[in-house]
Amino acid sequence: MGVFKPAIPFLLVCLMQSRFAFCQASIRITLTEVNAPFSKVMDDLQLKAGVTYLGMTSLTQLSHPVSFSVKDATLQEVLDLCFKGQPFTYKMVEGAITILPLETGGRTAIRGRVVDANNEPLSRVTVQVSGEALAAVATDDYGEFRINSHGADPTLIFSSVNYETQEIRAKAGKEVIVQLKDKISELHEFVELHTGFQDVHRRTTTGSFDDIDNELIFRRVSPNILDRIDGISSGVLFNTNIAQGTNQSTITIRGRSTIFSNPNPLVVVDNFPYSGDINNINPDDVESITILKDASAASIWGALSGNGVIVITTKKGKLNQQPRLVFNSSETVGGKPNLYYLPILSTNDYINVEGYLFHQGYYNSIYSNALHGALTPVVNLLFQDSLGQIPDAQAQAAINALRTQDYRPGLGKYFYRPSLNSQASLSLSGGGEHNQYFLSAGYDRDLSNLNRNEYDRVTINGNNTYFLLNNRLELNTDLAFTASTTVNDNPGVTNVAYPYAQVADAHGNPLPVAYGLNQPYIDTAGGGQLLDWHYRPLQELQNADNPTRLTDYRINFGARYTVWKGLDIRAYYQYGRGSSDNPNYMSEQTYFTRNLINEFTQINNGVPNYIVPLGGILEESTASYTANNVRLQINYTDSLSRKGLLNLIGGSEVRDIEGENATMQLFGYDPNEEVGVPVDYANFYPQYSNSNPAQIPYNDTKLGTSERYLSYYISGAYSYLGKYLLNGTIRRDESNLFGVNENQKGVPLGALGLSWHISKEGFYERSSIAKWFPFLKLRVTDGYNGNVDRSVSAYTTANVNPTPNSFDAINASIINPPNADLRWEKIHVVNFGVDFAMHNDQFGGTLEYYLKTGLDLIGESPVDPTTGVTSFTGNTANIQDQGVDLTLHANNTFGAFRWNSILLFSYVRDKVTKYDQVQGAVNAYLSVGILNPLLGRPLYSVYALRWKGLDDSAGNPQGYLNGTGQLPGKVTEDYNSILFSPDLSNLVYKGPASPPYFGSWRNSLYWRQWGLSCNIVYKLGYVFRRTSIDYTTLYGGNSPGHPDYDRRWQNPGDELHTNVPSRPTPILATIQSRDNFYQNSEVLVENGDLVRLQDVQLTYDFSRAAHPKLPMEQLRIYLYANNLGLIWKANHAGIDPDYVSATPNPRTLALGVKASF
Amino acid sequence: MFFLLLVIGLAAGACRKAFLAQKPSTNLLIPNSLTVLQELLDNEAVMNVTPALGEVSADNYYLPYTIWTSLDIKEYNAYIWAPDLYEGQGLVSDWDFPYQQVFYANTVLQGLTGIQPDSTNQAQWNMLKGWALFCRAYAFFNITELFAQPYDSASAATDLGIPIRLGPDINVKTMRSNLQASYAQILSDLQQAEGLLPTVIPARNLNRPSRPAVLALFARIYLSVGDYKNAGLYADSALQTYSFLLDYNTVLPGYFPIGDTMAEILYQSNLPQPGNGNMLEGIICGCIIDSNLLASYDSNDLRPSVYFLKQQSGTYTLKGSYSGLVYPFSGLATDELYLIRAECSARAGDTANALNDLNILLTHRWVAGTFTPYPIQSATEALDTILVERRKELAFRGIRWSDLRRLNKEGWNITLTRNLNGVMYTLAPNSELYTLPIPPDVIDFSGIQQNPR
Description:
The structure holds two protein chains of two kinds. By secondary structure, chain A is mostly beta strands. Chain A is built from 19 helices and 57 strands. In chain A, helix 7 crosses helix 9 (377-386) and helix 9 (377-386) packs antiparallel against helix 10 (392-403). The radius of gyration of chain A is 36 Å and the shape is elongated. The model of chain A is unreliable at 1-25 (pLDDT under 50). Chain B has helices at residues 2-12, 16-21, 34-41, 44-47, 53-57, 65-69, 73-79, 93-113, 122-147, 179-196, 211-224, 228-241, 281-284, 291-295, 303-307, 334-347, 351-363, 379-393, 400-409, 440-446, and strands at 28-29, 61-62, 160-163, 176-178, 265-267, 288-289, 308-310, 316-318, 332-333, 416-420, 423-427. In chain B, a hairpin with a 2-residue loop joins strand 10 (416-420) and strand 11 (423-427). The model of chain B has no long low-confidence stretch (mean pLDDT 90). The chains are: A mainly beta, B mainly alpha. Chains A and B meet through helix 8, strand 32, strand 36, strand 40 and strand 41 of A and helix 1, helix 2, strand 1, helix 3 and helix 4 of B.
């Protein structure tokens, strides 16, 4: 929180200074000057009285030195003394001292009006006639002025603190309209923001927007557009360690505001929500990204806006621009992932554990079981030894040979490789007087670091805009096409846990591993009549054939007709269609197919009868969507009076997204002729290995989906005097929610916002704080966003089950008991913001505080199971987020160096404020993969169990049960009594699982043609659960164990220096709960805080100006290094908190070139 | 083009309703047509599963120590009849599944009230109503056999029964009825169903009940409450309509002797599949058939080879293949009816008829030509033999627990024991442990009275 401390004194100073400005006239000055240069006296006065100088300050060069001594004099008195006898005079205009030449001669009256870039009136701008003393006036609230001049066509000088001084030659009798350019906040206030409905300047908004321009998008090298906003936008968090089944999105904007409904931000591409795969967007085609964060910014998207909106705007041509060709290409290389990152038990220890279990008789029931489950080589050797099938010495020698093996080198050699990602794009853009165009083509090829996995993508984009009928009619067409192929042949796993598995022999031939059925059984089963039943991971990799081909296109038509000045009508239509096809061909060489054929083989008199035909199996899934979007909109802009400006849009939108998914399966498939063989799905057949009757799996499915919206919206902004801005939005959405009454199909949502450009107030300009922060703006917004959950219904609804019952009848399940009170989810957002900037934007920033309350959220309530349902889903939950977003930027020049620094800091804390379903037991809050909110806690929280340490006799972990207040409770080893205790006070809340504090610090340094930029990201204030030895999965052969095993309790006294429980005797019913207790105990919860050097970019720019012989206008060569590693982490367990149970992304290095012709 | 036209229509408001009426997903249904109601009842995974804990606690098998120690906590405790069965864990499938069937049945019954049948669909409407009532009765009866104490006509009006829910509204509070009222509801549902269901067994859809199934269920229920007169009458009525017995000499040798449809079946239901917290892991994956049970089969008896599988170690495990499917069958079949009729005849002193039924059954179970009728003279002797044969024929059919409750109440004094690594556990006859505790989550929500343990 310390980071925004400076803001508080800053605000105080603002207030004090503005009071001071009002009292200026009554201020008393004590000052002595002896033969002082006039400029020194000016500085002294500025210091003492906080005055500002305007006008023709250059005249002071002609000044005489000044001498005087005053005590408690008024400002007026002091000024009179200073200006006495000088070749110029002064005038107090609105608290500022305007220096004027001495007046002479006759008059011409000139009238005029001063406006800003947004055509809003500018008051208190000093207007002077060049070369004429004392002829200075200030504009009024309407921005209007009237000035007398001696000459007929005088040159007028317009000056103001915040605007560039401008000179204009006026004509007597004709109204002069002058537009002044903003001096301080040019960069930020005039950035064009895109809401998807209109393009607005930041200064005409009150909401919370973030803009990412082309340069920043280009900074990172990656084929995915959303990657490029990671770490560069405040309040936007990219989540790592997402657990399946917990409805967590990869990106959250300003925390979490739903529980079970859609958690993803809305992505808008060129006016409409994008229905396709975001990977289809080539980042090189993107001009800018606007992120809409609060109610005011996002409410134009109504019921879709609850999780924030990311608006992607693609590149367009420009009017009157020579054809411009841009070529960009890069190659990114990345290392192999570190397979040694995730800790596992050493082979030696693992084999010792297997030996221990063997002697405990642990494997006997598996060995004798008719299911013939696979046992590892060591266990099979031990059985052969004990049954006398091989001599002791031979068994021992074979086991000892295995002790030296490790599966990771083989995995690294055959399953992984360095990654190589190539990108190339070419675009042509330009425009004439009446049209503009942009054409581009891109090609990406990504050889993943998983051997045989690759991705390639072709994108083609073209848009064209015509301006007709004297620019009254604008017509726009836009076509985007993407085709990609993803090959996913390598799952990156071997499906076995034992650490001495080998995937290949010394010559690279695939070796079998213990998977599925036991090796001795496989070797004899079927007497040679069955297909090879061994599982060889490397052979699987070689035989995999699993591509996904995707095509997607988007066609836009847009038209704008200006009815009269300020009023235009717009119509947009977008058609989008995408389809993907994933034929997964599993040839007869793959284990899946061989296993299925074998299980369904019947051998009668030595003759095999194949129920599943020989040949491959094709599993093909296809998905497609068709989206139609239409929007009609009216835009109206007018200055109702000269003091204000009104901007209104209103319209209606229809969206329809129809989806279709299907899967089908062909047996005995021949890929050359693309035919399959019919099979018998209906009858049961005994499976070969275990005789259990089974049917051939039937996987053919088809599903259609439909998402329809009908929306109406109106949004307006009224700015008064360019200082006060009020805007509001109302939108009503209706959707084809199922089984909802007509009147509940829609929801009206809206927001109001207010901003006060305080630095335009006279009192502020006069205050000395204005000298430091000549730009200051306050904003407040309040409103509602929404979210849709299409999975619930007001009626009893049922779902057809994908497979018929065992008597081949179609059947259905009830998925939802009736809920007549179903409502849409609403998110109430209040946002306060301050924007400030120093002169020339040397330093500035934005501070925002927000409060988000998710109301009527869809949640689950438990129900008495006697009712027939165990939980009920309805509008039962509330969640609240509080947060702060701070952005600070500094731009400074030191000689040839230019330094640009941006610090982002975000704080967001969510809290479930209403949730009815309290799970029956402590255990439910510890399970992985289930979302169980608890009142008063963040939605994603880490809970743990109190830890008493290990007991001194057996090394069992000990916990506490049912503590009260300060008392920790009873010490117990009855883990089930803790895990299944209904008393949730047995849970200790350890902290949020997502960082409440996060942000980045990006520094860019420019020297001549060189640019260097690096981004440091940080995440603070959260915890994670680390892994340790889990005897249940180790014994079960499901995990390779954990090296904490070496630190386990072995002898009394060990409990003093270790927390790792002893090795238990293999009784699953008891060790499961013992392991469960230990895994979820406090001792395994670690602090997640980290600081990471995310990336570094180095650029060198050649421009024709510097190199006249350069064949192109501009050439940039860039190097970009990503995933550089942690700078600091709080935990001492050697874990990167972003990768708790996965291998960290390897470092990558990109070299690229971008040329513009 | 259609879309553009649609947009124009929307502006006029005409198509707006149709546009928004589209189902979000093609597999969504509202249960307001006979087709959908039938699809709900055809959900075999929901409607045709019976509770498991009775079989887990019964004496047909024992578990090796290592298998027992690998079990889920509820099954682990049920095996040794621990008084605290659930250790605080809710979501007990043996309670939740039958009440889910009741909810489905009530949803269908309510759905039917909204559909006015006409001449074209009256038969289907009747069938669905009878089907739903049958399922409700079956579910209530199965709950009673586990969670209410054994029926005693003297005290039934004051003994605790089970919650009776007669509508799908989940807001109705759960209350326990008395045992008399519980049985009255079960019998009245069945009586209604009897008049509505078809008389012919749907041989290709055995998950659907028919009139013979109703009669068989009546027989089973009356037997369980010790009303042998009615049990015998209903068994006889059922056998009058359908009496087929499969000759085990005609089945295939090997693991899976009976094809995918067993013709003796009147109504299909089975014990739950293992996994997902269901409680049949031990029985399916590694139980050993009780040696006394195994020894009671004659060497010419074909049943052990059909029902059980010999292991390398010499012990037998369960195939569970009576129905042709892998999970133990718990539905209604003719063999059970023969045994009920035989038992009731013996109890009524009609030794000749009792033995006749027994002999018919056993000639279909022994190697052809080897079965010679038991030389039995007295009705008591006949009853003893019939009860032994009942256990042998109906092993792992989810019936033994019910029989233990009934027979011990009559004074047969059957004590169950378990030996786990030298530790002995016993279940005394007529112990309170024969009535399972109500799941803890149900008690928490409804506040209904717990069974004494």
